[in-house]
Amino acid sequence: MTYSDFLANTSTYVADTSFLINLNATSFSLEIIDKMKPSTIIITQQVYDELKNGQNSKYGDFDKINEFISKGFMKLQPLRSSALNIYENIVLGTAKYSLDDGEASVIACAVDLKIYAIIDEKKATRICREQYPDLKTFHTLDIFKIYLNKPLIQNATQNALKGARMYIPKSRYDELKEIVGNNFMEECSCISHSN
Amino acid sequence: MNNLSEKEIGERLRIARENAQITQNVSAQEIGVARTTIVAIEQGLRKIRIDELQKLASLYKTTVNALLRAEAVTINISPSFRKSKNANIEDVCEAVKLLENLVRAEVELENALGVKKRTNYPMEERIIPTSKSSLKRLAETTAESLRNTLGLSSSPVLDILSILDANLGIRVYLRPIKGNISGIYAYNSAIGACMLINSNHPAKRQRLTGIHELGHFMSNRDSQHIIYKEIDSSKLENYADFFCRAFLMPEGLVTKKFLEITEGQSHLTRRHIILLADFFKVSREAITKRLEELLLVKKGIWDWFQNNGGITDHQEEIVLGKKPERYLDEIASTDKIPPRILLLAYQAWKNDLYSEGQLANLLILSRHEMREILCNLESEENSNDLFRFPR
User: Using CA atoms, how far apart are residues B20 and B43, in angstroms rounded to an integer?
Assistant: First the structure.
């Protein structure tokens, strides 16, 4: 399925904390959510609690997400009992094969409800690939590319990189360079500049 | 439910509950069970469900993953400190919690990376009940012996962090602590010896605190202990004080330096005190009182200085031509997380052992702070990537 195919569909996503922080850092998160309609974004209770516990952060991530939930732009949804086994599998175990509660709940929710997951975190992406190969995941960059026009994609990406140090895997650097330009790539401190 | 037994899970839950200062009744209410059920869970007699786990983790201000992943380390040194009578109990609890969190993070990351902190603990010198003068002799002998072992025989102690951490393998953390707590020392067989030193204090005070705690480490290793600004006259405290003075200002070296600095002069001046304090990296009061103790100057000299304008920082700056030292370690005092823990965390993230969320939780940082640290360390590594370790 291509990006343009997605534009024709109503999709439901469950978002992890990384995406929400990146979204907030764009400084036009409401516009992005608006452009995603009628697609829905679900927030799990664990992700909500994680943002709430980090609410002393000067970035106001929790306040923003709380506002979106209260206005119906995002949906707060606890894990169903059918998701708990999946959640338990991911959240318990050795550090190498487990994830923190928020990250685990996103995967559990997506697998249970058969919806898409927006996950940036590299270890979470690896665990999805290895243990839940049928689960379709998107990076924040993918969401920007699906729903925004070219100037907005560039703005959103640059702001998320600068403001939230958005993580981009090295395999996507060529793609990133096309979006933000060479100069920005060179100057951005959160882009790895090793060979 | 993962590789932990019910008993281990129960034990971890109990420690987490006690660390959060929550009663079994409150926990029971949270998950809608009787207190006896909580007792059974904590004793490993009743299996806990994942939804119950989630609620309790949230109540204990932690996460399920942080509580129950295999590498998580359970440390509880709080009960020993609640008995302390001198300080505000909230300040004590906060400081102890800080030490627990720092040690927990460091030990867990070490375990995950298969790294073991090297320790080089000298033999403990158990104190037998004895007179004050015998205590003093014992402390001075132990201090001298340790100085020799560390190769310090005729040198002042310049870098106590290296001595404590790099040479002896004691975990040392410099962090701001509220109230009149100078430092905390704790030891158990799982974590070894660890110290938290108040970075709000001047460097010279921090140095005294560190070596004072070293005195406890040498004499009463398996203990938990807090030291305060005010004097505590118990035997162990006396020993630690004697040890501290003898270690930082050994009799032979103090005498030698004193004679050198005052040679040919008839009076003791503020300049002499300032130079000696600077040489030994101790406070002006500490060196003056040591000179009095060694009978190199008359008793009461420090009081005389105090009653006659004192010896000021400004005077020190004039004599030494530099501002008084503020920090023992500029980086350690200003960073929220000690450098070694940051490097371990970065390696764990790079090796895909810990996710960003797991590390943020472990180090009690926001996601933004965690990202900033990982970003900075990655940039640093990339700019210095000339030499790879042949491991």
Answer: 18
Name the residue of chain A whose CA is nearest to B366's CA: A54
Binary contact (A99, B65; C-beta < 8 A): yes
| Chain B from 341 to 360: CB within 8 A of any A CB | 348-349, 352-358, 360
pLDDT digits (tens, 9 = 90+) for B48-74: 999 999 999 999 989 999 998 888 887
What is the rounded CA–CA span in Å between residue A143 and residue B160?
Answer: 52
Q: Tell me the average pLDDT across B139-155.
A: 90
SS3 content of chain A, % helix, strand, coil (to 5): 60, 10, 30
Closest to B312 (Cα-Cα) out of B296, B301, B323: B323
State the complex-level ipTM: 0.91
**Interface contact flag, B379 A102, Cβ < 8 Å:** no
CA dihedral B20, B25, B30, B36 (to 10 degrees): 120
pLDDT in tens, B174-185: 888 888 888 888
What's the mean per-residue pLDDT of chain A? 90
DSSP β-ladder status, B171-175 and B192-198: parallel
Residue among B47, B46, B72, B45 nearest B60 (CA): B72
**Tally of CB atoms within 10 A around B177:** 24
Under DSSP, the state recorded for A172 is G
CB neighbour list of residue A180: distance below 8 Å, 6 or more residues apart: A154, A157, A158, A161, A188
Q: How many CA atoms lie within 13 A of A71 on its CB side?
A: 10
